[in-house]
Amino acid sequence: MKIWGMILGGFPRSRYARYALRDRERGVTPFAEDVEAIDRASAQIIGAQLAAGFPVVVDGMIDWHDIFRPFVDAWRNTTVDGLLRYFDNNFFYRIPVFTGEPDPREYVLPRRILRFKEIADPASLKAVLPGPVSFAYMSKNNSGLSNEELAEKIAYILRDEARKAIDSGASLIQIDEPFLADIDATRDHARLAAELVDKIVEGVEDKSIVSIYFNIPESSVFEELLNTRAKYIMIDVVDAPIRAESLVKNIGFGDHTPVLGAIDSRRIIDDKPSFVENFLKAIESSVDEVVVTTSTWLDLIPFRYALRKVYVLGRIVEELAGRNGYDLYSIWR
C-alpha cells in the first residue's frame, strides 16, 4: 500500500503577515510591499511542507479571510454581510450574500498557482475550492434562484476555476464540503454535492479530492457521496473517532482513495502514530493507496503550532511506513 501525507488547507497568519494585511486594509502601505510580505510568509509555509517530504503542498491561503471570501470578491452579484460562527469553532466568516446570479469578473486560482508553483518545486501545488453545496447553503440567497439552482450556478464557475488551475500547474483540486457533516445535511444534499462535484472535476477526476470536516457525515450522506467520480474522499476521523471507525469498517470508500484527517488541527498537542495506525489497519486490505492529512485547515491554532503539526504529520507518516512496510510517497524517496 502506498502512503503519503499532505496538509488539508489554509494556515494561520504569522505576526508580520497579520501586520501586513492589516496595513493593506488601512491603505497605509503600497500594494507591492503587501504582496512581498505575503509571499515571504507563504514561502515559509511551503518550505515547512517540503521539509516534511510532502509531494503535494498548499500555499497557506493566508490572505484569504475565509474559504468563500476570495470568490465573493471576484464575482458580480455577490457581497458579504455580518459575521457567523464557522460551525463549532472559535472562528467566524463573513456571510456571502447573493443578490443575483453569480458572474465572475476574474478567476481566483490561476494567478495563485503561477505565483507559487516555482517556490513549491519539487513538490506540486494543490488548489482548494469551496464546495458549491456548502457555498449555497451557508450563504444568504437573495438571488431569486432556489438553493439548488444557486449551487449549480456556483459549480459551473468553480469548474472553470478548476480547469484554469490545472492548466496553470496545479496537480490536485480539492473541493471542501463541510456542510455535508452538519446535522442538517441530508441524502439529497449529498446527491446534489456528488452531481456538482462531477461537473467541476469533469476531465480531471483523477486529480480531485472532496473533503468533509468538523464531523463525520451520516451514513446515508456518505453513501450518496460515494457516487462522485472524484478520486479522493477525505473525512475528519479526529472529530468523532468511534463513528469514523464504524464508517470506515462498515461502508468503506468504495472505489475512492481514502484521505484520513487523522492529525488534530484544533488542538496544539502532538498527535500519536497509534491513532493513525488504527485506521490504516482497518482499510489496508481493501485499498492500494491512503493519504494522511490534518483534520481540517490549520488556521484554528497559532502559527507556530501549525508549523509543528506539519512536522508531526511528516514524522508519523514516515514512521508508519517504516513500521508496516508501506510504500512511502515523498519528494525525498
Task: Please explain how this structure is put together.
The protein has 333 residues and is an alpha/beta fold. It has a single domain, classed as TIM Barrel (Alpha-Beta Barrel), CATH 3.20.20. The chain is 43% helix and 20% strand. It is built from 11 helices and 12 strands. The chain has a 9-stranded parallel sheet. α1 runs antiparallel to α2 (31-51), α4 (109-120) packs parallel to α6 (147-168) and α7 packs parallel to α8 (219-225). The longest helix has 22 residues, at 147-168. It is globular, with a radius of gyration of 19 Å. The mean pLDDT is 92.
Concise structural overview:
With about 325 residues, the protein is of the alpha/beta class. The protein is about 45% helix and about 20% strand.
